[in-house]
Amino acid sequence: MMKEGQVPLSAFFSAVERRLDKKFPGEWPSFQIELCGRVVEMRFSTRIQAEKASMEFQHKILSDFKTPQAVFKFWIDDCTQYLPSEHINARWKIEEGNRCLWCSAGAGFIGADLDRYTFYSCHHSECKTHQVIAAHSDPPLFFQWGKSEDLLMLHGAVVGAEGRGILIAGRGGAGKSTLSVSCLLAGMDFVGDDYIFLSAAGEMKAFSLFSVVCLSQDMIDALRPNMPLLWQYRKNKWAMSAAKYELASELPIRAIVVPAIAQTDKPEMRPFSSERAITRIAYSSVSQMLGIRDPKLMRAIIDRLTGLPAYEFLQCRDFQKNAEFLHAFIAKEL
Amino acid sequence: MYKLNEEKMFFDVADGQAVVINIVTGMYYGTNALGSVVLERLVKGNAPDEIEKAVKNLDSCPADIHDRLAAFVDKLIDAEILVTGETVPGGSEPIDQCAVEDFELTLDEFAEVQDLLLADPIHDVDVEQGWPIFKEDEKEEE
């Protein structure tokens, strides 16, 4: 809540715009994508950022420019020019009406100004683990946009068959990406791995966001050689392009599937606690938001997913068999 | 004994980490490695005395582990995570020594208020002298 004499957040964003005009004059490298049926424009201060992001959204890039519903601005700068240095290294957020600002402990800040439908992502130039080489561009920024569009951004994968989808929950090492990529390679419907949008009201539909999938070297070796790898972003982590395959832009969600790895010859599906599955997705999703704790987001995810059936999928050693089994399960049971 | 307060809480344990979400408030809790083992057994209805036997079998278990466990259970009750329930046999099964980092039993509460700053870098500024004029703008004006 603002007190008398305080500067509104709108002044911050106006000052940001002034600085951007001065520091990065001229036209920025940009492209437009279709996001959940809306046209949004992505602008970048450097060509390398734009090129990397274009690979992340390869399946969504529009060939004709239209009037965008929202504009996303990504740039690299010294964040101490914008905020006191002691606050740059902390995690915090400020919300004020239609605007918010988040700071991510030395990595930079993101902001949303819904009056102007402009979303900001400033990567701190001093940050060693630079987001430019990470697998996905600023998930929290897309979370903010989704919020304004009645969409929830979740950390999970969505695959499907015959027009019906499942939400795959998973925390590191559970086999989420292995399963979703197995389904992708087997020709099943694939909405996304890691991050997807979910309609917050009405029919429960998942929408695609990124077309890159994060894989470890072990997974790449095991799944298929010569996969369309884009770049290595950690010692043992690669970004793979799913855009080379048939992707589904949206699917209705019928169940949550919690994957597990079993060293067996046959896959197995068994009922699982919905509460546990929802907890896994909700915690995992909230944990992706720059470390900002968000009970409101937690509640929104729980309220939305409550009522969905949940299953545990024990994946066997044969990835093709797992995908075929899951395909048959979705077609017959959901 | 105890059980999860199912009217208010969702619980999950994955990759050795327990998470509890208060579905009414959206507040959530995390426990450390040993806390997660203990909480999972308590939620199953295992008696604390039985769980204590398993903890005491771990190498280097401290002498005050009984008090630490009792304090942890009290915290879980205070947070309304556990309520009284029926006793389910078990709880003394061996704990994987490698999964236990230390003998602390922590319950971390994650609430939005923790993200609020004592000093607000955006709002609390001197409009005349400081923000929203950026440093480099100031230099140029000089």
Observed structural traits:
heterodimer, A: alpha+beta, nine-stranded mixed beta sheet, 29% helix, 33% strand, globular, B: 142 residues, alpha+beta, 4 helices
Number of domains of chain B: 1
The share of residues in extended strands of chain B comes to 15-25%
Shape of chain A: globular
Order of helices and strands of chain B: EEEEHHHEEH
DSSP E strands of chain A, number: 19
Question: What is the level 1 CATH name of the largest domain in chain A?
Answer: Alpha Beta
Largest sheet of chain A: 9 strands, mixed
Largest interface, by Cβ-Cβ below 8 angstroms: which chains and how many residues each?
A-B, 47 and 36 residues
**Largest sheet: spatial strand order of chain B:** 2-3-4-6
Structural notes for this entry:
The complex is a heterodimer of chains A (334) and B (142). Chain A is an alpha+beta fold and 334 residues long. Chain A folds into 2 domains: 9-147, no CATH class; 153-333, Rossmann fold (3-Layer(aba) Sandwich), CATH 3.40.50. In chain A, 29% of the residues lie in helices and 33% in strands. In chain A, the strands form 3 sheets. In chain A, strands 8, 9, 10, 11, 12, 13, 17, 18 and 19 form a 9-stranded mixed sheet that branches. Chain A has a 7-stranded mixed sheet with strand order 1-2-3-7-6-5-4, sandwiched between helices. In chain A, strands 14-16-15 form a 3-stranded antiparallel sheet. The relative contact order of chain A is 0.13. The model of chain A has no long low-confidence stretch (mean pLDDT 89). With 142 residues, chain B is of the alpha+beta class. Chain B has one domain (2-117). Helix content of chain B is 30%, strand content 18%. Chain B contains 4 helices and 6 strands; from the N terminus they run ββββαααββα. In chain B, the strands form 2 sheets. A 4-stranded antiparallel sheet of chain B has the order 2-3-4-6. In chain B, strands 1-5 form a two-stranded antiparallel ribbon. In chain B, helix 2 crosses helix 3. Chain B starts with a strand and ends with a helix. Mean pLDDT of chain B is 86; it is low at 127-132.
